[in-house]
Here is the input.
Amino acid sequence: MKKRMLLNMLLGGLLIFPFYSQAITLSAYLQVKQLLAQDNPDNKQLEGITQAYFNGIANGFNFYAVSVKMNNEHTDFKPLYCPPKKVEQNSDFMVEHIDAYLNKYPTVKQKQKDAPIELIYILALQDAYPCEA
Here is the structure.
């Protein structure tokens, strides 16, 4: 009986969790980067969670890029960005491109501080890998 109740609570929590999760904003991204720059033993866990979150986003963008190429080879569809063929996106790649974009356009930090980090990532990819007209 206890096992079943525990299992139901666990499954219920897993099903409800997506309703409470949200994309992080640019300002939250910058705060996390500041925290991770500090010498604190608790940062290992935060770094792991952050890396997993960014890997998930980057993997989604990998799937998008592959899908666009596969499904629109002979159409006039214009993708959001056009990376080189052998680019594999991961959390390090994502952070590198976001940081480069923010360094190139520093006003974005204030103007887009409430924007989801995924949107900033798209802008960074469009800037780094524009599609030819």
Residues 23-128 form one domain. The radius of gyration is 18 Å. The chain has one domain: 23-128.
